[in-house]
Every structure is written in structure tokens, then in C-alpha cells.
Amino acid sequence: MNRVGHRRPAASFEPWSSVVVRGLLACLLLLASVALCACNAPTAAAPDDEIVLWHAYRGEERAALEAGVAAWGARHPQVRVRALAVPYDAFVDKVSLAVPKGNGPDVFIFGHDRLGDWAQRGLLEPLGFLADESVLDRHPRETVEALVYGDELYGLPLAFKCLALYYDKALVPAPPVTTDELEQVARALRSRNPSVWGIAWELESLYFHAPWLYGFGGAVYRDDADTLALDAPEAARSLAFVRAWRDDARIIPPEVTSALTTALFRRHELAFVVSGPWFRAELSGHDGWGVAPLPVVSATGQPARPFLGVEGLFLNRRSPQKRLAFDLMVALTGDEAARTRFTSGGQLVANQAIYEDAGVRADAFAQAFRAQAARTVPLSNRPHMRRIWTPVKDALSAAIVHGAEPAGALRKAVEEIARVDR
Amino acid sequence: MLATVVAVALGTFVFHRYAAERGDAIGRARAEQAARWLLTHGPAGVDDLRRSGTVRLAGVAFDAPPPGSRYPYLRRPIWLAHTEPGKVEAALSRDDPAEKAAADALVQDELVRLPDGGYRAAAGERLGGGERRAAFVELAPPPRVEVPWPGLAMAMLAALVFWWDLARREPASRSRPVVGALTVSVGVLGLLAPRLLAVDRLEVPASVGSADVTGTAMLLAGVVLAPLALVAGAGWRHGSRPSPHRVAYAYIGPALLGLGVLVLVPFLYGVALAFTRASHGEVVWVGLSNFVDILSSAGRSLTEPLSFYFTLVVTLLWTLANVVLHTGIGLGLALILKEPTLRFKGVYRVLLIIPWAVPSYITALVWKGMFNQQYGLVNHLLAGVGVAPVAWFSEFWTAFTANVVTNTWLGFPFMMVVSLGALQSIPSDLYEAASVDGASKWQQFRHITMPLLRPALVPAIILGSVWTFNMFNIIYLVSGGQPNHSTDILITQAYRFAFEQDRYGYAAAYSVLIFFILVIWSFFTQRFTRSEEA
Predict the structure, then answer these.
(1) What is the distance between the alpha carbons of residues A278 and A162, in angstroms, rounded to a whole number?
(2) ipTM exceeds 0.95
(3) Residue B426: how many CB atoms within 10 A of its CB?
(4) Most distant CA pair in chain A: distance in Å?
(5) pLDDT surpassing 90 at residue A286
(6) Any idea which architecture A164-305+384-421 has in CATH?
(7) Closest-CA residue in chain A for B68?
(8) Is A164-305+384-421 the same fold as A50-161+309-378?
(9) Given CB atoms, is B353 within the 8 Å cutoff of chain A?
(10) Distance (Å, rounded) from C-alpha B516 to C-alpha B234?
(11) Residues of A with CB below 8 A from B213's CB?
């Protein structure tokens, strides 16, 4: 030690240095042990008398849900039930990471489009053993079917969303029933005043194109396997139909964004908008608008059927309290809780009884969407669906906006998806 | 000494991870094989297993929708056989928590690790009409972990070479840490090689070899950190004496640790991800196939918009166009603002810096609105001079131009500020001397301004080029890749693969390639700046 010591620049340096050495070493060891623990240690299960619910609701929707949770909690004083609001953007990641580690909630609420992904990874408890017919009978059949993946039921429906036809009552006295009628109305309006447009939606999005796709007899998938039906002639016809409205009839504004659509509709310069229940929030202060189910496609006689999106209540496969958690799920999707979510939360709830209530019968908005829900196609919940949005968007963009030939554009999209699947 | 401790600790850590994961793979494979076996042998197999004593628990079950149900997805279980007598009845009620897990196994194939290290596996098959048969087994923990001898041998050889090198050289040798780092890297890579190449020496079914991306990222972190620790250790002790730079090492220690955790580990996680692919809900190792797909532009011609090379050319073009415009406009404005006769200079300067101060998202969205075919300001102005409205995002060149215009608006203030600062530091007597000698304005610019501006401008240009290369906001928000992804650059393309198509492995491979391109670029520019200084 002495031999080395006399070479040191300053004596006062010594203690400081050894502290630093030890500190650094301790930090490294701590880091290594934390990493080891994080990888290997089994995580502790939640206490038995606690049920945790995750949701991404805000504002009134949140308050209405929490009221339902509190009501259930009051009936079960031995259980501590917590509703935790998780930001929507982080929701999928949080569930996908926390549930496999055993840190997830017992019950959570999310759109049904992620269902296949989670079910395939074994994150969700199938409800086939827990549910019975009286529970499922409360909901419209379509909203239950949306929560089936493979041949298992994985959730209970809370609320639904789909597209419908908004119209300006000042321009259009009564909503059209067929596409031909709609086109005539729009053409007449445009010939009277060229600054008024006929109809608008997000042309390049498959979600918004789906009503026409199914109305023309097309489909996204051919069967239960991930075989696409988008290269069928019916799909191409639906693209040609929209393009004719845009380029020949000129009733669709050529470059539409959602902001522009809202602005035009509010200025009474747009007769129809294809949009979902969320569009109502954009129309506050605007009077004289109505909602109706989408028209029947004149060329085929079939109704335009939009995608149905369902907000489901899912049960964590690792929950230590599955029976208790399922009881909460049944209560939250029950008619009583649904009535609160409908009246004070403004949700389009997935309970048939609510739409038969005296007060709700007069609610044109709710009835229009309830009627539309019966003419929908559940948005596919298989994981494969996530891969097709972008290629199909490209095809829609090419064929409707940039003048490519529809059948070719769709074939290219199908090839592109096949390449990804390989 | 410290270096040895750190190296041994890290080595142990790395090996521990490797061994734990290998043991896991073996246990899973055995449990799954047993469950499959039981499924094919039915209730009779349960008796066989009970007699052989190879499993802790086993059972075969059957489930079907309740008779007459309108909903084919409702289920009621029926147990056929179980290794423990009495369990069949208990399972039917599904209220016994121990049995609940077994009944859960009915529902789908599953494989879980039990808290004591054992494994439970289930296998199921569909019999049609919503009816299925399932089997489950529970195995005790596997006894021992197989040691990866070839990799270990390589690591030991590497360590030997390192210590031999340490003993042979002079204590103060400069190349020693480098040699040490290299040899240790080679050794640990030996441990890693089988998994990176997706070669599994143990004969486990491929479906079980699911990728542990976090574990691999940890291993890679070990590969990088171990040599770094050796280098740091070598610096700590200057040969047999303590290094005079100890305090400096201590000061940068926490920052290095932070960088390691916050930058290095996520980065390596991404690298590990590049060798995987998610298929049917499971992440599997695919070796280099993502890279091969990208670089061979699999399935499409090289000149098509979604090919890597097309996007690369667009990215380079985008970077070049922007850097030239930013520098040109920035320098031009700086030269004007420098004019001593100019009035209200401060006002102009503030106004010109505003584009820089506005968040780029907002600028991008504002410009996108201005390029709208019908309601956009740009087409209104063009109509004023008699040009027909342009559908900006329908053609490659117009969409590209829209992007470049927007990013130029955002980018020139930075170059202007840098140039202005550098210009003000050029002594004015140089210009006075030049004008006395009869030099023209151009000659003054060419022979005084330019050479003195270069040391400040070159680093700014390099920085700007890297920023522009990865300028996600503008491309994504203005043209959004339209038409048909032709105006996408590499980084937006990688984003689309990851977050729009869920191809995380492919996107990670894309990002690794982007990283390498930027590494090459920074090597190139470093040489350039070095020659600049010399």
C-alpha cells in the first residue's frame, strides 16, 4: 500500500476515492440483482378480496361506469373494488405487458378488435364455463358475436359503435333510403348551389368504406382462415361506385379530411356525412341535423352495412378471483348499470331493454344507431385484421383518389398482405 | 482487480440468464410432449402415467356446449380420468381453486411455469360441433441445466488470451483494453451464436423455442458492458498503479450507468427484436431472415415505392434537398442581416426565428392544410397567377415538394442563427484590408467569409443532415407517404411496419439498418471534420 501510496497526487483524495469505488460497485451489483429479480421472481398475487378494473373512459362515461362499480361494491361489502382509469394510448401495451406477468387487472374494458390477439396469447379467460343464456340474452346478438374468437366467448358487451348517415335537415327534409335517391338529392343540391357538396367520409379508410363493400356483396375475409375476399369483383365494384360519386357525379369533395368535413357540415355546405356516434360532439350548437341508417345500395338491393365495434368487458385469465370478477362483469353489463351509462354517460349501450324504455323510444339519435347496429358486420377481431388496414388504405387511395384501376389496386393490396403473411 | 470482479460478475450474470432460459425451454418441451402424448392415448394413458410416476398430476377431459343451447360457445366440462381419485368430481364443480387451474386447461393449449419451477402443459383437440377433448400434465422442475460447452470453451479461451495478453504487455500499453474487449466479445458471442442463428442444438420442438427478447437484450447488454467494464477497469488502474484519472471516471460513472440503462438496454432490445417474428401470438427466432427480406427487397422490384432501396434513395434525396435549401437560405439571410446599414435588424431576426420556435407538429399540420387542393392557401395563391389547382399529394414530385417546402420553413432559422453567429466573429479589418487591396465583394465572400465560416457551418450541416434523415414529423404529418408510400422515408416506413402492421421484428430490422447507415455517415463525416480541423 505504501509503495503505491506515495505516488498519489493528494492524501485527501484517498477516502473519497474508496467511497466512489464502493458506490460504483454497489450500483452495478444492485443493477444486476434488480435485473435478475425482474426476470425470475414470481410476482405476488393480489389480495383475495380485491377486484381491480381497468378502463380508458374519461369524463361522463367514467363517472357513469364508476357509479355502476360503486353500486356493485355496495352489494359486496367484503370486496374492495377499484376502477382504475388507464390512458387510452397506453392501454394495449399495459394490458399486453402486465397481464402475462400477473400484475394485470381482474377485469378490463376495451374495444373488441384486440380480442383475437389477447385471446391467442392466453391473456383472456373464456367465458363459456361462467356465462349462461340469461346473461347473453340481454344483449343484441351481433354485439355478443363480436366477442367470439375461434369458438370461444371472451367478453360481455358494454357498448357499441358503428357508422350511420348524418344529414342536414335544412338541405334534406327526409333521409334517403337508397343510394340512387341520395345521389339525386345531392346532385339537385349541387346544381342549385355549387358550393354545397353532397356527401363526405374518409374515403381512404377501410373502416369508412366497409358499408359500401358489404353493400355490394363483398367482404374482407372469405372464411375463418385468414383468406381475403378483397380481390373479388364485388369489392372492385364498390370502389368504382365511390369513385363515380367523386369524379363523375362530383358530389364528394375531392380532398376530404375530418376537420374539413366538420367545417363544411356546420356551414350547411354539406348535405350528408357518414360518421359514427362520436360525430355528435362536433355538432354542439349546430341545429337541424339528423341521423338515419345508411341507405340500401341500389345496384344490389342490399343495405350498406358498416363495421360494428363493441366495447367489451374482459376477464383476465390470471385473475385469482374469476367467479367474483365475473359477477362484477354481469352487474356492469346489466340493464340497471346500462341505463346509467346511457343516460348520464351518453353511451350507446349494448342492452336491448334500454331501447324499449319509454324515454329512449323518442331519442331519434339512439334509435337510429340501434337500427343501424342490426345492419352491421362485426369488425373482425382476429389479429390478422391489424395487418390489412394499411395495404387496403393504399388500394382505396390509389383507386378512389388517384385514378388507379380498382380491381388491380385491390389485387395489389391482397398480394402485399400475402407477402407480409409469408 | 476491480476489472476482474466486474467481469466475473457480469459473466456470471450472463451465464445465469442463459442457463435459466435453457432450463426453461427443456422443461416446457417435456411438459408439452407429455400433454400431447396423453391426448392421443386418452383416459388409458392417465393410468399409465400414474403407474410410471413420471408426472405429478395428469388428467383427460372433455367439454361440450350444454344441450339445446342457442350459443355454441357456452361450455360445460366433463372429466374422463385423473391421476388423483376424487378429482373428477371436484373438477366438475369448478369451485375448488386447485382444480380450477386444471379445468382451465380444457379451454386451450397452454403452458405455464409453476412457482416451484415445475411446468404445467395442456393440449387440446377439436372434435367438431363445439366439443373438444383436452389433456393436461404437471411435471416437477427439470433436474439440471445443460451447459453450453462450445460457447463456454470459447469464452474461457477468450479469457485466457486476454490474461496472457495482460501479462505479456507493458502495463501502460494502450491497445490492451481494446484487445481485451475484442477477445471477451468474441467469447460471449460464442455463447450467443446458436440463438442468433436460430440453431437449437437441443431437440426441442420449434414451437417451444419462443423468443425471450428481454433475456437476449440482457445478454447483448452483457456483451457490450463487459468489455466496457474491462476498459474502464484498465483505465482505473494504470497498469499496477492507480490511474491519475480516477476522479474523472468516478464523475462519469453515474452518467454512464444512466446511459446504459436508458439508452443501451432499449437499443439492444430493439436489436434482439430484429431477429424475431411474431406468428400466431408467439414470438419466434427467425435468424437473419428479416434482414434478408429487406435487403433483397423480397417480392417486389427495387424501384417500387415499398422497397428498401427506393425508400433509401428518397430519404437521401430528401436529406440533400433539405440541407442545401436550409444552408442556402439560412446563409443568405444571415449575410443580409449582417449588413451594417440595415435597419430594424432585431425585428427581422425575431420574425425569422419564429418558424423554429413553433412546435414542428403544428407547423406540419398548418402546412398540410395550406396544401389542400380545394381550400388550401397555396392553390389560392397559384390561382391568383392563373395556375390551375394542383392536387399536391397525388404525384410523387408535388408531394415531395410539399414536404421539402414545409421542412425548409422549419429548418432555415437554425442555419441562419449559426451562420449569423459565425459571421459576427469574423474581424471586420480583414474586409477592410481586402477592399484596400481592391478585392470585389464576391472575392471577399469567397476568400474571407467562406473559409472562416466553415468550422462553424460544417458541424451544423452534419447535425442538420442527421436530423433531416430521421425527420419523422414532417413526412408523416404532411404527405403521410402519399401517393402510395412513395414519399415515405426510412423512419416513417419503419414506424408503419411496427405500429400500423404489427411487424415489430421487421421494423426492428429496418431500424438496425437505419442505425448502420447513420454509423457509416458519422464515420464519413468525422473524417471530413478531422481533415477540416487539420
Answers:
(1) 10
(2) no
(3) 15
(4) 103
(5) no
(6) 3-Layer(aba) Sandwich (3.40)
(7) A133
(8) yes
(9) no
(10) 29
(11) none
